[in-house]
Amino acid sequence: MVYRFFRKERIVWWRLLLASAVGSCYVAFYFFPFFSGIYAWFTKLLFSLFILWIAFGFKRLTHFLHHLAIFYFISFVFGGGYMPLLY
CA 38, 41, 42, 47 torsion: positive or negative? Predict the structure, then answer.
């Protein structure tokens, strides 16, 4: 796992499963027009913080910010790598 490689922490599988379920529900909300608030950048940031909190917990602020930095780094790398393949 990528997070295990970067952080050298034990990963709890049920927390990752629950965080994945929350993320999947967030994606499902895109199909309903009355949830238009999820398109805002602030809502996306809150959901990513919530998903990380579920997946890894909150031991210290520095650990949580490190998880957040790794999360966004991996997201941008994969998103940036996908764009040339798409176009």
Answer: positive
pLDDT tier for residue 86 given thresholds of 50, 70 and 90: confident
As given in the structure block, the two tokens for residue 36 are 């238009």
Tokens of 30: 């895109």
CA distance 21 to 5: 23
Structure tokens at 68: 């957040």
- What is the mean pLDDT of the segment spanning 22-40? 80
Phi/psi for 47 (5° steps) reads: -65, -40
**Paired tokens of 70:** 């790794």
Question: Could you give the CA distance from residue 13 to residue 29 in angstroms, rounded to a whole number?
Answer: 25
Q: Over the chain, what is the mean pLDDT?
A: 82
Q: By the 8 A CB rule, do 68 and 52 touch?
A: yes
Entry pTM: 0.74
